[in-house]
Write a structure and sequence with these properties.
The complex is a heterodimer. Chain A is of the alpha/beta class. Chain A contains ten helices and ten strands. Chain B is an alpha/beta fold. Chain B has one domain: P-loop containing nucleotide triphosphate hydrolases (Rossmann fold, 3-Layer(aba) Sandwich), CATH 3.40.50.300. Classes of the chains: A alpha/beta, B alpha/beta.
Protein backbone atom coordinates (compact mmCIF):
# COMPACT_ATOMS: atom_id res chain seq x y z
CA UNK A 1 0.00 0.00 0.00
CA UNK A 2 2.87 2.29 0.85
CA UNK A 3 4.02 2.06 -2.75
CA UNK A 4 0.83 3.62 -4.06
CA UNK A 5 1.40 6.82 -2.17
CA UNK A 6 3.71 9.35 -3.66
CA UNK A 7 6.79 10.25 -1.68
CA UNK A 8 7.05 13.94 -1.16
CA UNK A 9 9.95 14.38 1.19
CA UNK A 10 12.32 11.77 2.45
CA UNK A 11 15.67 11.59 4.06
CA UNK A 12 18.24 9.01 5.00
CA UNK A 13 20.78 9.31 7.77
CA UNK A 14 20.24 13.00 8.31
CA UNK A 15 22.71 14.26 10.88
CA UNK A 16 23.57 17.70 12.10
CA UNK A 17 26.54 18.33 14.33
CA UNK A 18 27.17 21.74 15.80
CA UNK A 19 30.53 22.82 17.11
CA UNK A 20 33.85 21.03 17.01
CA UNK A 21 36.07 19.13 19.43
CA UNK A 22 34.91 19.21 23.00
CA UNK A 23 31.92 21.39 22.19
CA UNK A 24 30.54 18.98 19.65
CA UNK A 25 26.79 18.58 19.93
CA UNK A 26 24.81 16.26 17.75
CA UNK A 27 21.49 17.99 17.34
CA UNK A 28 20.03 15.52 14.88
CA UNK A 29 21.40 12.01 14.83
CA UNK A 30 20.93 9.79 11.77
CA UNK A 31 17.23 10.16 11.26
CA UNK A 32 15.37 8.51 8.40
CA UNK A 33 11.94 9.50 7.31
CA UNK A 34 9.49 9.13 4.45
CA UNK A 35 6.80 11.76 4.25
CA UNK A 36 4.08 10.88 1.79
CA UNK A 37 1.97 13.30 -0.15
CA UNK A 38 -1.34 14.20 1.43
CA UNK A 39 -0.68 12.83 4.88
CA UNK A 40 -0.45 15.18 7.83
CA UNK A 41 2.74 14.72 9.75
CA UNK A 42 3.66 15.86 13.23
CA UNK A 43 7.10 15.87 14.74
CA UNK A 44 6.80 16.04 18.52
CA UNK A 45 9.53 16.54 21.06
CA UNK A 46 10.68 18.64 23.96
CA UNK A 47 12.71 21.82 23.72
CA UNK A 48 16.19 20.91 22.61
CA UNK A 49 15.24 17.62 21.01
CA UNK A 50 16.31 18.82 17.58
CA UNK A 51 12.91 19.49 16.01
CA UNK A 52 13.73 22.96 14.81
CA UNK A 53 17.17 21.96 13.55
CA UNK A 54 15.52 19.25 11.49
CA UNK A 55 12.98 21.78 10.20
CA UNK A 56 15.76 24.14 9.16
CA UNK A 57 17.47 21.34 7.27
CA UNK A 58 14.24 20.40 5.52
CA UNK A 59 13.82 24.02 4.51
CA UNK A 60 17.38 24.22 3.26
CA UNK A 61 18.31 27.00 5.67
CA UNK A 62 21.17 24.92 7.02
CA UNK A 63 22.92 21.99 5.45
CA UNK A 64 22.98 18.59 7.09
CA UNK A 65 26.41 17.38 8.18
CA UNK A 66 25.59 13.97 6.80
CA UNK A 67 22.75 12.44 4.85
CA UNK A 68 20.65 13.40 1.89
CA UNK A 69 17.19 14.86 1.58
CA UNK A 70 15.06 13.76 -1.35
CA UNK A 71 12.25 15.86 -2.70
CA UNK A 72 9.65 13.78 -4.57
CA UNK A 73 12.14 10.99 -4.86
CA UNK A 74 14.83 13.16 -6.44
CA UNK A 75 17.92 14.25 -4.57
CA UNK A 76 17.48 17.84 -3.52
CA UNK A 77 19.93 20.30 -5.02
CA UNK A 78 20.22 23.63 -3.26
CA UNK A 79 23.82 24.37 -4.04
CA UNK A 80 23.13 27.84 -5.42
CA UNK A 81 20.82 30.61 -4.34
CA UNK A 82 18.84 30.31 -7.57
CA UNK A 83 18.26 26.63 -6.94
CA UNK A 84 17.28 27.35 -3.37
CA UNK A 85 14.69 29.85 -4.55
CA UNK A 86 13.35 27.23 -6.91
CA UNK A 87 13.15 24.77 -4.00
CA UNK A 88 11.32 27.28 -1.81
CA UNK A 89 8.50 27.40 -4.32
CA UNK A 90 7.73 23.88 -3.14
CA UNK A 91 8.32 24.19 0.55
CA UNK A 92 7.24 27.03 2.78
CA UNK A 93 7.15 27.57 6.49
CA UNK A 94 5.19 29.21 9.26
CA UNK A 95 7.25 29.99 12.31
CA UNK A 96 6.47 30.09 15.96
CA UNK A 97 6.89 33.80 16.42
CA UNK A 98 4.85 35.78 13.91
CA UNK A 99 6.24 39.03 15.31
CA UNK A 100 9.71 38.32 14.02
CA UNK A 101 8.74 36.61 10.80
CA UNK A 102 8.16 39.73 8.74
CA UNK A 103 10.47 42.35 7.36
CA UNK A 104 9.54 45.33 9.50
CA UNK A 105 10.25 47.83 6.72
CA UNK A 106 7.74 46.38 4.31
CA UNK A 107 4.04 46.98 4.20
CA UNK A 108 1.56 44.16 4.08
CA UNK A 109 0.62 44.53 0.43
CA UNK A 110 4.25 44.32 -0.58
CA UNK A 111 4.62 41.14 1.49
CA UNK A 112 1.68 39.62 -0.37
CA UNK A 113 2.73 40.99 -3.75
CA UNK A 114 6.04 39.21 -3.34
CA UNK A 115 4.22 35.91 -3.06
CA UNK A 116 2.34 36.56 -6.29
CA UNK A 117 5.59 37.43 -8.04
CA UNK A 118 7.19 34.29 -6.72
CA UNK A 119 4.42 32.25 -8.35
CA UNK A 120 5.21 33.88 -11.67
CA UNK A 121 2.54 36.55 -11.53
CA UNK A 122 4.90 39.42 -12.10
CA UNK A 123 3.36 40.33 -15.43
CA UNK A 124 -0.24 40.37 -14.24
CA UNK A 125 -2.17 43.66 -14.33
CA UNK A 126 -2.35 45.31 -10.90
CA UNK A 127 -6.14 44.85 -10.62
CA UNK A 128 -5.73 41.14 -10.92
CA UNK A 129 -3.02 41.10 -8.29
CA UNK A 130 -5.29 43.03 -5.93
CA UNK A 131 -8.01 40.52 -6.61
CA UNK A 132 -5.69 37.66 -5.72
CA UNK A 133 -4.56 39.39 -2.55
CA UNK A 134 -8.14 40.17 -1.54
CA UNK A 135 -9.08 36.56 -2.07
CA UNK A 136 -6.16 35.38 0.07
CA UNK A 137 -7.09 37.80 2.83
CA UNK A 138 -10.72 36.75 2.67
CA UNK A 139 -9.61 33.16 3.10
CA UNK A 140 -8.02 34.02 6.44
CA UNK A 141 -10.79 36.39 7.56
CA UNK A 142 -8.79 39.55 7.10
CA UNK A 143 -9.94 42.57 5.12
CA UNK A 144 -7.41 43.49 2.46
CA UNK A 145 -8.57 47.10 2.05
CA UNK A 146 -7.94 47.71 5.76
CA UNK A 147 -4.45 46.27 5.55
CA UNK A 148 -2.97 47.87 2.47
CA UNK A 149 -1.22 50.75 4.15
CA UNK A 150 -0.27 48.94 7.33
CA UNK A 151 2.89 47.31 8.54
CA UNK A 152 2.76 43.76 9.90
CA UNK A 153 3.66 44.92 13.43
CA UNK A 154 0.44 46.92 13.59
CA UNK A 155 -1.53 43.68 13.64
CA UNK A 156 -2.13 41.41 16.62
CA UNK A 157 -0.30 38.10 16.94
CA UNK A 158 -3.26 36.09 15.70
CA UNK A 159 -3.75 38.39 12.73
CA UNK A 160 -0.08 38.18 11.82
CA UNK A 161 -0.21 34.43 11.96
CA UNK A 162 -3.28 34.50 9.70
CA UNK A 163 -1.46 36.80 7.30
CA UNK A 164 1.26 34.15 7.22
CA UNK A 165 -1.40 31.68 6.12
CA UNK A 166 -2.58 34.14 3.46
CA UNK A 167 1.00 34.08 2.12
CA UNK A 168 0.88 30.31 1.98
CA UNK A 169 -2.47 30.55 0.20
CA UNK A 170 -0.88 32.65 -2.53
CA UNK A 171 2.32 30.63 -2.76
CA UNK A 172 0.57 27.24 -2.93
CA UNK A 173 3.60 25.20 -1.89
CA UNK A 174 3.55 21.42 -1.90
CA UNK A 175 4.85 21.20 1.62
CA UNK A 176 4.12 23.45 4.53
CA UNK A 177 6.39 23.29 7.54
CA UNK A 178 4.59 24.70 10.54
CA UNK A 179 7.05 25.17 13.39
CA UNK A 180 4.96 25.62 16.54
CA UNK A 181 2.36 27.64 14.63
CA UNK A 182 0.05 28.12 17.60
CA UNK A 183 2.27 28.30 20.64
CA UNK A 184 2.34 32.08 20.75
CA UNK A 185 -1.37 32.67 20.29
CA UNK A 186 -4.22 32.04 22.64
CA UNK A 187 -6.34 28.94 22.80
CA UNK A 188 -9.36 30.41 21.04
CA UNK A 189 -7.43 31.58 17.99
CA UNK A 190 -5.65 28.24 17.92
CA UNK A 191 -8.71 26.42 16.67
CA UNK A 192 -9.16 29.05 13.94
CA UNK A 193 -5.57 28.74 12.76
CA UNK A 194 -5.69 24.94 12.71
CA UNK A 195 -8.99 24.97 10.82
CA UNK A 196 -7.52 27.31 8.23
CA UNK A 197 -4.45 25.14 7.75
CA UNK A 198 -6.63 22.07 7.27
CA UNK A 199 -8.86 23.91 4.82
CA UNK A 200 -5.80 25.08 2.94
CA UNK A 201 -4.55 21.53 2.73
CA UNK A 202 -7.80 20.38 1.16
CA UNK A 203 -7.88 23.31 -1.22
CA UNK A 204 -4.34 23.34 -2.60
CA UNK A 205 -3.42 19.77 -1.77
CA UNK A 206 -0.28 20.45 0.19
CA UNK A 207 1.37 18.26 2.77
CA UNK A 208 1.55 19.92 6.16
CA UNK A 209 4.32 19.03 8.60
CA UNK A 210 3.66 20.20 12.12
CA UNK A 211 6.53 20.63 14.49
CA UNK A 212 5.27 20.98 18.01
CA UNK A 213 5.74 20.12 21.66
CA UNK A 214 2.00 19.97 22.16
CA UNK A 215 1.15 16.33 21.83
CA UNK A 216 -2.55 17.13 22.08
CA UNK A 217 -2.32 19.28 18.99
CA UNK A 218 -0.36 16.59 17.18
CA UNK A 219 -3.03 14.07 18.03
CA UNK A 220 -5.80 16.38 16.91
CA UNK A 221 -4.40 17.25 13.49
CA UNK A 222 -2.10 14.56 12.25
CA UNK A 223 -2.18 11.16 10.58
CA UNK A 224 1.37 10.21 11.34
CA UNK A 225 3.28 11.20 14.44
CA UNK A 226 7.06 11.10 14.85
CA UNK A 227 8.37 11.41 18.40
CA UNK A 228 11.80 12.93 18.67
CA UNK A 229 14.14 12.57 21.60
CA UNK A 230 17.69 13.92 21.70
CA UNK A 231 17.95 14.13 17.93
CA UNK A 232 16.49 10.74 17.14
CA UNK A 233 13.08 9.48 16.21
CA UNK A 234 12.19 7.13 19.02
CA UNK A 235 8.71 6.27 17.90
CA UNK A 236 6.60 6.73 14.83
CA UNK A 237 3.26 5.53 13.66
CA UNK A 238 -0.33 6.57 13.19
CA UNK A 239 -1.59 9.17 15.64
CA UNK A 240 -3.99 6.77 17.34
CA UNK A 241 -1.33 4.13 17.75
CA UNK A 242 1.37 6.43 19.11
CA UNK A 243 -0.74 8.56 21.40
CA UNK A 244 -3.27 6.10 22.72
CA UNK A 245 -0.91 3.14 22.92
CA UNK A 246 2.59 4.55 23.30
CA UNK A 247 5.40 2.01 23.45
CA UNK A 248 8.35 4.19 24.39
CA UNK A 249 8.72 5.50 27.95
CA UNK A 250 9.62 8.89 26.50
CA UNK A 251 6.34 9.13 24.63
CA UNK A 252 4.47 8.06 27.72
CA UNK A 253 6.20 10.76 29.71
CA UNK A 254 5.38 13.43 27.14
CA UNK A 255 1.74 12.43 27.22
CA UNK A 256 1.62 12.35 30.99
CA UNK A 257 3.04 15.87 31.14
CA UNK A 258 0.12 17.42 29.31
CA UNK A 259 -2.59 18.68 31.65
CA UNK A 260 -5.66 16.48 31.35
CA UNK A 261 -9.25 17.19 32.11
CA UNK A 262 -10.83 13.76 32.05
CA UNK A 263 -8.09 11.94 33.92
CA UNK A 264 -6.11 12.64 37.03
CA UNK A 265 -2.97 14.66 36.25
CA UNK A 266 -0.08 13.11 38.12
CA UNK A 267 2.35 15.79 39.25
CA UNK A 268 4.75 13.46 41.01
CA UNK A 269 6.58 12.41 37.85
CA UNK A 270 8.73 15.53 37.53
CA UNK B 1 -14.21 41.77 58.57
CA UNK B 2 -13.92 39.23 55.84
CA UNK B 3 -11.91 36.06 55.81
CA UNK B 4 -10.84 36.81 52.28
CA UNK B 5 -7.14 37.46 51.72
CA UNK B 6 -7.85 39.52 48.66
CA UNK B 7 -11.11 41.18 47.93
CA UNK B 8 -11.84 43.40 44.97
CA UNK B 9 -15.04 45.39 44.68
CA UNK B 10 -16.15 46.94 41.42
CA UNK B 11 -12.63 47.71 40.28
CA UNK B 12 -12.44 49.83 37.15
CA UNK B 13 -9.20 50.91 35.56
CA UNK B 14 -8.54 52.56 32.25
CA UNK B 15 -5.81 53.28 29.78
CA UNK B 16 -5.64 56.79 28.41
CA UNK B 17 -4.33 56.71 24.87
CA UNK B 18 -2.22 59.44 23.39
CA UNK B 19 -5.34 60.80 21.72
CA UNK B 20 -6.93 61.17 25.17
CA UNK B 21 -9.36 58.32 24.59
CA UNK B 22 -10.37 56.23 27.56
CA UNK B 23 -10.08 52.49 27.24
CA UNK B 24 -11.67 50.66 30.14
CA UNK B 25 -9.67 47.46 30.16
CA UNK B 26 -11.01 46.36 33.54
CA UNK B 27 -14.66 47.22 33.96
CA UNK B 28 -16.37 46.78 37.35
CA UNK B 29 -14.61 43.58 38.27
CA UNK B 30 -15.32 42.08 41.67
CA UNK B 31 -13.59 39.05 43.03
CA UNK B 32 -12.69 37.40 46.28
CA UNK B 33 -9.89 34.98 47.05
CA UNK B 34 -10.02 33.20 50.37
CA UNK B 35 -7.10 31.84 52.32
CA UNK B 36 -5.68 28.70 50.79
CA UNK B 37 -7.62 29.12 47.58
CA UNK B 38 -6.53 29.87 44.07
CA UNK B 39 -8.40 31.71 41.39
CA UNK B 40 -7.86 31.23 37.69
CA UNK B 41 -8.53 33.93 35.16
CA UNK B 42 -9.24 32.83 31.61
CA UNK B 43 -9.97 34.73 28.46
CA UNK B 44 -8.49 35.49 25.07
CA UNK B 45 -5.72 37.97 24.31
CA UNK B 46 -6.75 41.52 24.99
CA UNK B 47 -9.62 40.75 27.34
CA UNK B 48 -8.00 42.52 30.28
CA UNK B 49 -6.45 39.61 32.17
CA UNK B 50 -3.02 41.14 32.48
CA UNK B 51 -4.38 44.64 33.10
CA UNK B 52 -6.40 43.21 35.96
CA UNK B 53 -3.22 41.70 37.37
CA UNK B 54 -1.40 45.03 37.19
CA UNK B 55 -4.39 46.84 38.68
CA UNK B 56 -4.57 44.42 41.59
CA UNK B 57 -1.02 45.29 42.53
CA UNK B 58 -1.78 48.99 42.44
CA UNK B 59 0.74 49.30 39.64
CA UNK B 60 -0.74 52.43 38.10
CA UNK B 61 1.84 53.93 35.81
CA UNK B 62 0.67 55.82 32.73
CA UNK B 63 -1.07 55.02 30.48
CA UNK B 64 -2.84 52.85 33.08
CA UNK B 65 -5.02 54.84 35.47
CA UNK B 66 -7.12 53.92 38.45
CA UNK B 67 -10.78 54.95 38.12
CA UNK B 68 -12.88 53.47 40.88
CA UNK B 69 -13.37 50.46 43.11
CA UNK B 70 -11.64 48.94 46.09
CA UNK B 71 -8.81 46.46 46.48
CA UNK B 72 -8.52 45.02 49.97
CA UNK B 73 -5.58 42.84 50.86
CA UNK B 74 -5.70 41.28 54.29
CA UNK B 75 -8.00 44.02 55.55
CA UNK B 76 -5.93 46.87 54.11
CA UNK B 77 -7.40 48.99 51.34
CA UNK B 78 -4.67 49.73 48.82
CA UNK B 79 -6.79 51.19 46.05
CA UNK B 80 -6.01 54.85 46.75
CA UNK B 81 -2.28 54.41 47.35
CA UNK B 82 0.39 56.08 45.26
CA UNK B 83 2.29 53.71 42.97
CA UNK B 84 5.57 54.52 44.70
CA UNK B 85 4.18 53.67 48.14
CA UNK B 86 2.70 50.50 46.72
CA UNK B 87 6.10 49.55 45.39
CA UNK B 88 7.72 50.10 48.77
CA UNK B 89 5.24 48.45 51.06
CA UNK B 90 2.92 46.19 49.08
CA UNK B 91 4.84 44.65 46.21
CA UNK B 92 6.71 41.57 47.21
CA UNK B 93 5.42 41.64 50.77
CA UNK B 94 1.67 41.50 50.26
CA UNK B 95 1.39 40.74 46.57
CA UNK B 96 4.02 39.16 44.40
CA UNK B 97 3.79 39.12 40.65
CA UNK B 98 5.30 36.85 38.04
CA UNK B 99 5.18 38.71 34.76
CA UNK B 100 4.40 37.16 31.41
CA UNK B 101 7.98 37.46 30.22
CA UNK B 102 9.43 36.15 33.47
CA UNK B 103 12.16 34.48 31.48
CA UNK B 104 13.54 37.93 30.73
CA UNK B 105 12.92 39.34 34.19
CA UNK B 106 16.38 38.45 35.48
CA UNK B 107 19.25 40.82 34.98
CA UNK B 108 21.60 39.18 32.46
CA UNK B 109 24.68 40.83 33.96
CA UNK B 110 24.05 39.63 37.50
CA UNK B 111 24.29 36.27 39.12
CA UNK B 112 21.01 35.08 40.59
CA UNK B 113 22.35 35.55 44.13
CA UNK B 114 23.35 39.18 43.42
CA UNK B 115 19.86 39.82 42.16
CA UNK B 116 18.41 38.32 45.33
CA UNK B 117 20.73 40.46 47.46
CA UNK B 118 19.40 43.59 45.78
CA UNK B 119 15.82 42.53 46.38
CA UNK B 120 16.34 41.86 50.05
CA UNK B 121 18.57 44.86 50.71
CA UNK B 122 15.90 47.15 49.30
CA UNK B 123 13.45 45.97 51.92
CA UNK B 124 15.75 45.07 54.77
CA UNK B 125 19.00 47.09 54.67
CA UNK B 126 20.44 45.44 57.77
CA UNK B 127 20.60 41.93 56.28
CA UNK B 128 24.12 40.60 55.81
CA UNK B 129 25.31 38.72 52.74
CA UNK B 130 25.59 35.47 54.63
CA UNK B 131 22.07 35.73 55.98
CA UNK B 132 20.73 36.42 52.53
CA UNK B 133 22.62 33.50 51.06
CA UNK B 134 21.33 31.13 53.73
CA UNK B 135 17.79 32.34 53.29
CA UNK B 136 17.94 31.98 49.51
CA UNK B 137 19.57 28.58 49.73
CA UNK B 138 16.95 27.27 52.14
CA UNK B 139 14.13 28.59 49.98
CA UNK B 140 15.59 27.20 46.76
CA UNK B 141 16.16 23.79 48.27
CA UNK B 142 12.69 23.67 49.78
CA UNK B 143 11.28 24.38 46.35
CA UNK B 144 13.35 21.69 44.69
CA UNK B 145 15.82 23.95 42.92
CA UNK B 146 19.52 23.12 43.19
CA UNK B 147 21.50 25.67 45.23
CA UNK B 148 24.08 25.95 42.42
CA UNK B 149 21.54 28.02 40.51
CA UNK B 150 22.30 30.90 42.87
CA UNK B 151 25.84 31.20 41.57
CA UNK B 152 24.84 31.20 37.92
CA UNK B 153 24.06 33.87 35.39
CA UNK B 154 20.60 33.75 33.79
CA UNK B 155 22.03 32.73 30.40
CA UNK B 156 23.37 29.55 31.96
CA UNK B 157 19.89 28.44 32.95
CA UNK B 158 17.31 26.77 30.75
CA UNK B 159 13.94 28.41 30.17
CA UNK B 160 12.11 26.29 32.69
CA UNK B 161 14.83 26.77 35.28
CA UNK B 162 14.78 30.54 34.77
CA UNK B 163 11.05 30.56 35.22
CA UNK B 164 11.28 28.57 38.43
CA UNK B 165 14.06 30.83 39.69
CA UNK B 166 11.88 33.88 39.11
CA UNK B 167 9.03 32.22 40.97
CA UNK B 168 11.31 31.41 43.89
CA UNK B 169 12.55 35.01 43.98
CA UNK B 170 8.98 36.29 43.92
CA UNK B 171 8.21 34.55 47.22
CA UNK B 172 11.42 35.65 48.98
CA UNK B 173 9.60 38.22 51.08
CA UNK B 174 6.78 35.76 51.89
CA UNK B 175 3.89 37.52 50.17
CA UNK B 176 0.26 36.74 50.90
CA UNK B 177 -0.93 36.59 47.33
CA UNK B 178 0.95 35.49 44.25
CA UNK B 179 -0.22 36.62 40.84
CA UNK B 180 1.13 34.41 38.09
CA UNK B 181 0.53 35.84 34.64
CA UNK B 182 0.94 33.12 32.02
CA UNK B 183 3.93 31.62 33.84
CA UNK B 184 4.20 28.63 31.57
CA UNK B 185 3.04 29.63 28.12
CA UNK B 186 6.55 29.84 26.68
CA UNK B 187 7.65 26.49 28.06
CA UNK B 188 7.35 22.97 26.78
CA UNK B 189 5.08 20.52 28.54
CA UNK B 190 7.68 19.04 30.85
CA UNK B 191 9.00 22.36 32.13
CA UNK B 192 5.44 23.56 32.37
CA UNK B 193 4.63 20.69 34.65
CA UNK B 194 7.61 21.51 36.86
CA UNK B 195 6.45 25.11 37.13
CA UNK B 196 2.95 24.00 38.02
CA UNK B 197 4.28 21.59 40.59
CA UNK B 198 6.30 24.37 42.12
CA UNK B 199 3.31 26.69 42.33
CA UNK B 200 1.28 23.94 43.98
CA UNK B 201 4.18 23.40 46.38
CA UNK B 202 4.16 27.06 47.33
CA UNK B 203 0.51 26.81 48.27
CA UNK B 204 0.84 23.50 50.11
CA UNK B 205 3.90 24.51 52.11
CA UNK B 206 2.35 27.82 53.05
CA UNK B 207 4.79 30.18 51.32
CA UNK B 208 1.80 32.01 49.91
CA UNK B 209 -1.72 32.16 51.21
CA UNK B 210 -3.59 32.61 47.95
CA UNK B 211 -2.86 32.60 44.25
CA UNK B 212 -4.25 34.16 41.13
CA UNK B 213 -3.32 32.26 38.01
CA UNK B 214 -3.81 33.85 34.62
CA UNK B 215 -3.69 31.79 31.44
CA UNK B 216 -5.62 30.94 28.34
CA UNK B 217 -4.88 27.23 28.68
CA UNK B 218 -8.03 25.86 30.26
CA UNK B 219 -6.77 22.35 31.03
CA UNK B 220 -4.04 23.99 33.09
CA UNK B 221 -6.47 26.15 35.02
CA UNK B 222 -8.62 23.15 35.67
CA UNK B 223 -5.70 21.32 37.21
CA UNK B 224 -4.28 24.18 39.20
CA UNK B 225 -7.04 26.41 40.53
CA UNK B 226 -10.12 26.04 42.68
CA UNK B 227 -12.23 28.66 40.93
CA UNK B 228 -12.23 30.04 37.42
CA UNK B 229 -13.23 33.50 36.32
CA UNK B 230 -13.79 34.06 32.62
CA UNK B 231 -13.22 37.57 31.30
CA UNK B 232 -14.37 39.05 28.05
CA UNK B 233 -13.69 42.59 26.86
CA UNK B 234 -12.82 43.84 30.34
CA UNK B 235 -15.82 42.34 32.09
CA UNK B 236 -16.33 39.19 34.09
CA UNK B 237 -18.69 36.98 32.10
CA UNK B 238 -18.63 33.90 34.26
CA UNK B 239 -17.46 32.85 37.68
CA UNK B 240 -17.59 29.24 38.82
CA UNK B 241 -15.67 26.45 40.43
CA UNK B 242 -13.06 24.93 38.12
CA UNK B 243 -15.08 21.76 37.72
CA UNK B 244 -18.26 23.62 36.74
CA UNK B 245 -16.50 26.14 34.52
CA UNK B 246 -14.90 23.45 32.38
CA UNK B 247 -17.61 20.81 32.23
CA UNK B 248 -20.73 22.89 32.66
CA UNK B 249 -20.11 26.43 31.40
CA UNK B 250 -23.14 28.71 31.24
CA UNK B 251 -22.14 31.82 29.34
CA UNK B 252 -21.99 31.28 25.56
CA UNK B 253 -18.47 32.69 25.51
CA UNK B 254 -17.19 30.31 28.17
CA UNK B 255 -18.95 27.55 26.29
CA UNK B 256 -16.98 28.54 23.20
CA UNK B 257 -13.73 28.69 25.13
CA UNK B 258 -14.25 25.21 26.51
CA UNK B 259 -14.79 24.04 22.94
CA UNK B 260 -11.21 24.95 22.09
CA UNK B 261 -9.60 22.55 24.55
CA UNK B 262 -7.10 20.13 23.08
CA UNK B 263 -6.05 17.23 25.29
CA UNK B 264 -4.43 14.01 24.06
CA UNK B 265 -7.21 11.74 25.20
CA UNK B 266 -9.36 9.26 23.41
CA UNK B 267 -12.19 10.80 21.45
CA UNK B 268 -10.45 14.10 20.74
CA UNK B 269 -10.18 13.38 17.04
CA UNK B 270 -13.92 12.90 16.75
CA UNK B 271 -14.66 16.26 18.29
CA UNK B 272 -14.63 19.25 16.03
CA UNK B 273 -12.92 22.17 17.68
CA UNK B 274 -15.25 25.11 17.79
CA UNK B 275 -13.61 28.39 17.05
CA UNK B 276 -15.53 31.46 18.13
CA UNK B 277 -16.10 33.54 15.01
CA UNK B 278 -15.27 37.21 14.89
CA UNK B 279 -13.01 39.38 17.01
CA UNK B 280 -13.46 41.03 20.41
CA UNK B 281 -14.97 44.53 20.36
CA UNK B 282 -12.87 47.65 20.35
CA UNK B 283 -12.78 48.84 23.93
CA UNK B 284 -12.43 52.47 22.90
CA UNK B 285 -16.09 52.31 21.97
CA UNK B 286 -17.52 49.26 23.71
CA UNK B 287 -20.89 48.17 22.35
CA UNK B 288 -23.93 48.86 24.49
CA UNK B 289 -25.46 45.88 26.21
CA UNK B 290 -23.76 42.53 26.02
CA UNK B 291 -20.22 42.88 24.70
CA UNK B 292 -20.23 39.38 23.33
CA UNK B 293 -23.47 39.93 21.36
CA UNK B 294 -21.74 40.40 17.98
CA UNK B 295 -20.16 36.93 18.19
CA UNK B 296 -22.94 35.11 20.01
CA UNK B 297 -25.00 32.40 18.34
CA UNK B 298 -28.00 33.04 20.53
CA UNK B 299 -28.13 36.80 20.16
CA UNK B 300 -31.51 38.51 20.63
CA UNK B 301 -32.64 42.07 20.10
CA UNK B 302 -32.67 42.72 23.86
CA UNK B 303 -29.01 41.72 24.16
CA UNK B 304 -27.74 45.00 22.82
CA UNK B 305 -30.44 47.22 24.32
CA UNK B 306 -29.43 47.50 27.97
CA UNK B 307 -26.33 46.66 29.90
CA UNK B 308 -26.53 43.19 31.37
CA UNK B 309 -25.77 42.65 35.04
CA UNK B 310 -23.81 39.74 36.41
CA UNK B 311 -26.37 37.23 37.67
CA UNK B 312 -25.47 35.52 40.90
CA UNK B 313 -26.99 32.05 41.01
CA UNK B 314 -25.49 30.90 44.29
CA UNK B 315 -22.71 28.42 45.07
CA UNK B 316 -20.17 30.98 43.95
CA UNK B 317 -21.51 30.93 40.43
CA UNK B 318 -22.34 33.99 38.43
CA UNK B 319 -22.71 34.77 34.75
CA UNK B 320 -23.56 37.70 32.54
CA UNK B 321 -26.31 36.84 30.06
CA UNK B 322 -29.94 37.76 29.51
CA UNK B 323 -30.98 34.13 29.42
CA UNK B 324 -31.74 32.20 32.56
CA UNK B 325 -29.80 29.11 33.50
CA UNK B 326 -32.57 26.81 32.28
CA UNK B 327 -32.90 28.61 28.96
CA UNK B 328 -29.17 28.39 28.32
CA UNK B 329 -29.03 24.72 29.19
CA UNK B 330 -31.93 24.02 26.87
CA UNK B 331 -30.15 25.80 24.02
CA UNK B 332 -26.96 23.82 24.60
CA UNK B 333 -28.86 20.55 24.78
CA UNK B 334 -30.68 21.26 21.56
CA UNK B 335 -27.44 22.13 19.83
CA UNK B 336 -25.73 18.99 21.11
CA UNK B 337 -28.64 16.93 19.77
CA UNK B 338 -28.46 18.65 16.38
CA UNK B 339 -24.77 17.87 16.13
CA UNK B 340 -25.58 14.25 16.82
Amino acid sequence: MADERKLCLSGTGITKVFGIGRNKTTAVNHVDFNFYEGEIISIVGESGSGKTTLAKMLLGLINPTEGEIYFQGVKRDISSHRKKKEYWKNIQAIFQDPFSSYNIFRKIDSVLLDCIHMRGGRGLPYDQKVELMTEACRFVNLKFDELTNKYPFELSGGQQQRLMIARIFLLKPQILLADEPTSMIDACSRATILDMLMQLRDEIGMTPIFITHDIGLAYYVSDTVYIMEKGEFVEKGSADEVILHPKEPYTRRLISDVPKIYEEWDLSTV
Amino acid sequence: MSDAILEVRELTTKYITRFQEDVYAVDHVSLKVEEGKSLGIAGESGCGKSTLALSLMGYYFPPLHYTSGEIIIDGQNISGMKPDDVRKSILGKEIAYIPQAAMNALNPTQKVIDFIEHVIEAHNPSATKNEIYDLAKRLFEALGLPAEVLQKYPVELSGGMKQRTVIAISVLLSPLVLIADEPSSALDVTSQKMVIKMLRNLMDKGYIKAMIFITHELPLLYNVTDDIMVMYAGQVVEMASAEKAVFDPLHPYSKGLMGSIIVPEEGLRDVKLTAIPGVPPNLKKPPSGCRFAARCKYVQAECTATSIPLRDIGNGRAYRCIFSEAELREKYDREARNNG
